[in-house]
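Fold these two proteins, one after the other.
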Amino acid sequence: ASCVQYRLVVRDVHTLQILQLYTCLDQIQHIEWSADSLFILCAMYKRGLVQVWSLEQPEWHCKIDEGSAGLVASCWSPDGRHILNTTEFHLRITVWSLCTKSVSYIKYPKACQQGIAFTRDGRYMALAERRDCKDYVSVFVCSDWQLLRHFDTDTQDLSGIEWAPNGCVLAVWDTCLEYKILLYSLDGRLLSAYCAYEWSLGIKSVAWSPSSQFLAVGSYDGKVRILNHVTWKMITEFGHPATINNPKIVVYKEAQKSPKLGLGRPPFPPPRATSESKYEIASVPASLQTLKPLTDRANPKIGIGMLAFSPDNYFLATRNDNVPSAVWVWDMQKLRLFVVLEQLSPVRSFQWDPQQPRLAICTGGSKVYLWSPAGCVSVQVPGEGDFPVLSLCWHFSGDSLALLSKDHFCLCFLETEEPMGPAVRELDGHT
């Protein structure tokens, strides 16, 4: 699904043929599929409106108007039959039921980086709250939205919450001004608290491993600390130095590749404005391009800004914001650095293939980069003109990849003979 101004376009993922075309009441700011892909939500924050469309019954639709309360966020519940709307100034969250048309209200939601978290099985929702200048967490049962647990957290200014994939532990972390991450059980008991250091900027990113055995905590000091699920103590930390000295670590560097020309004849078709690139293995010691952060300004570009585990738990990909062009891939079985990929431009986004350890990277240029344990490849996005890839998203099957620019999108189909394949045999795009 994609939106163009006030129109919602639903296409077939294989042919890109338009299946449905819906017209909303205003310009769409946010779209989201329900978990079963039967409904799609369109939020128009400026008007305080949400419209819901049915794929099975195109003539059916639903309109939710928050009125004077306004609207700043809207999302589905895991069952795909309830919509959670957050009003302006985070005064409340309104839960709308598509089945019974009933409405529930949840007060005191906290305006923070990540204030709502659902368990993977969809049974429970944790909500960060702020009451009387103090942080709390409430756990609700998603079937009837009844309060299960309510407890206060030992945080100065709670920044985010995240359930472990098994739904047994809730991670709660504090503002970047104080290094503190707390682990709570489902019934609200404090299992452990971890603090790496004091009197400096603290936690910047957090990620659970798919098996719930590891919790990776990215910090402003440029290190990732790995906590284990037995004692909740640190088992190792990963540094991100600007120079790689270990000869066992493979460092791939993107390099420009000049097009081959015929003898005296101009190339046909003419080359693009953006030249092709390839990866070269750098000799050790290898130096990475670093960025000097402006520490006198808010949100300095330092520390671990991105973390992601591979779906099989074998690898962890990270980005250190003051080494913005490099992606670090760590071996989680041996707890050591495995590969470093350095791009020509700063990395904007990366995401793991949901089915296998294959990482897709984009840098805002007209290329997409793929890495797997067998190697890596740089692929030019086909199509006329330049196509700056600003973000990307895998299909859950791992067979296709959506690339997004500011005004267009491209759907790429990956065909490989072997299950891994850094070598993409073919990559077709349609805009």
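Now the second one:
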Amino acid sequence: MISFKQLPLEAKAAVAAGVVFFSMTLSRSYLAEKLDLRMRHWFMRVQMALFANALMLIGSLHVWRSTVTTFSRSSAASSLCFLPWKIAVFMFLALTHSSFFTLLFLVAEEPYFFSLAAYTCLGAYILLIFFLFTLGSVEQAYKFLAGRGAKAGAGSKNRTAMKPVLAVMLTLVLTVVGLLNASQPPAVNTVEIPVHKLPSTMNNLKVVLLSDIHLGPTVGKTKLAMIVRMVKALKPDITVIVGDLTDSEAEIIRPAVEPLGELNSPLGTYFVTGNHEYYTSDVSNWFELLKSFNIRPLHNENVKIVSPKSAADWFCLAGVDDIEADVLRYSGHGMDLKKALRGCSSEHAIVLLAHQPMAAKWALQERPDINLILSGHTHGGQMFPLNAGAYFLNPFFVGLYKVGQNTFVYVSPGTMYFGIPMRLGSRAEITEIILRAP
């Protein structure tokens, strides 16, 4: 029987990840009784960071062997550039592994340079792992198709050496492209949506949709102030924020939130929780903070949006808690559609705010008379190659979907980004929705 000491480093990292994950599962019910909500979730976030790092260690060992060990046995090892290269790779991996911990310890009004560097390295790390795996698979396929004779000789060694070089070059290029794309202001996307039973007096009502701003280690007050200026320039009748506004506690990041106080939509500004609000374990304080800025949280509840032209004309705007609240057993929270739509009948148009597209799917299964659902969460995948995973994991990915005869779902690609300050294959967006009466 092989002992733990005899296992390869990758296997040891996998075992460590398994142990952390098992401890997370066991401690969830135990901590619920021993710690208060805030401490329990903080401890679980530390566990999650350790779990992610244990898993990433497997990839980091592969990166090190591909980009350093491969060349240590060649003439390149005697080059003056080899030592600086080893140091650079080590620092790159160290920053990558520190990224998850900046979310716990380095959050302020504006992002720290260290946090930006760490999350940039995390984005580059994802790209590098992808290219190393893809090029390695191509190399193995070539060897298989070419036959055993292709495995030996100088040509084979050159191909092996070229694989990490090409992977690093592609990673560098796409990292720069992703950083430049994410640094641009969000695009303003205007979408016209017909809303069944919307009163004619409310035709052309303008709703601005914001989602997934993720105030935290890499998004601060400056970017939020820019978003608020862009929203004000659009002069919306209603502004809605459909979750993941923040990744930190209200007290820590309060100065960064102040620009939200400048939103002054005449028919109100509304907010529903996303999964990341529950990760902060500080939802109640966030609700109070948002209320101080005249932003109304819709906590499984609804409001009547009355036409400025006729008090008799209105539609129902409802919001549900994010479905992650149930998974985290967050007391007093969880998606409750019946409560959220109490008093909303099919005689009037119904617009629902629900952070996750999965919640939108569940809502339509229960209440197919909902006319429009506004969601976010997916980020449009945010960056290649994560786009594919986001596409397959969500019933609605990004953009406008028609469901049945009289229902539409719109999924925002996000107004900023989470952590990694990069976008590849997606673009941050402020959505200007024009509601059309039938």
